[in-house]
Amino acid sequence: MIKFYQYPNCTTCKKAAKFLQDYGVSFEPSDIVQHTPTKNEFKEILEATDIDINKLFNTHGAKYRELGLKDKMSDLTNDEKLDLLSTNGMLVKRPLAISGDKVTVGFKEDQYKETWLS
């Protein structure tokens, strides 16, 4: 079962959810703002997959810009980045879909086909 973190008003999240539904892939939706993954959950994602921690950040989001993270990211430790991600779901790039050692961040149809339909 895919754990599917989304933001309800996000059009990209809606497209990704529709894609999964259209292909009959079962997933468990979760509001990323109401149920932001914990620091330990993010650690588990990083350990189980080969994703770069920086790819988890929503670099186009207002919160990212508001905190001036573009200029600070290179100075932050992974631990500090995990703290940031786990305290504000709006900093997380979405949708974030996870199942075991598979993860997708954002929605690209080709990537979804390769990851979730194979």
Broad shape: globular
The run of helices and strands is: EHEHHHHEEH
Q: Tally the helices.
A: 6
Strand order of the largest sheet: 2-1-3-4
Mean pLDDT value: 96
Proportion in β-strands: 15-25%
Low-confidence stretches: none
Q: In whole angstroms, how far apart are the ends?
A: 14 Å
Backbone CA Rg: 14 Å
Largest sheet: 4 strands, mixed
What's the β-strand tally? Answer: 4
Estimate percent helicity: 40-55%
Oligomer kind: single chain
Structural class: alpha+beta
Description of the molecule:
The protein is an alpha+beta fold. The chain contains six helices and four strands. It has helices spanning 11-22, 39-48, 62-66, 69-72, 78-87, 109-116; strands at residues 2-6, 27-31, 96-99, 102-105. The chain has a four-stranded mixed β-sheet, covered by helices on one side. α1 links the parallel β1 and β2 (27-31). The longest helix is centred in the first third of the chain and has 12 residues, at 11-22. The chain is globular. 29% of the residues are buried. The mean pLDDT is 96.
Short description:
With 118 residues, this protein is of the alpha+beta class.
Short descriptors:
6 helices, 15% strand, alpha+beta, 118 residues, 4 strands, four-stranded mixed β-sheet, 42% helix
Break the fold down into its secondary structure elements and pairings.
Layout: E1 2-6, H1 11-22, E2 27-31, H2 39-48, H3 62-66, H4 69-72, H5 78-87, E3 96-99, E4 102-105, H6 109-116
Parallel strand pairs: 1-2
Antiparallel strand pairs: 1-3, 3-4
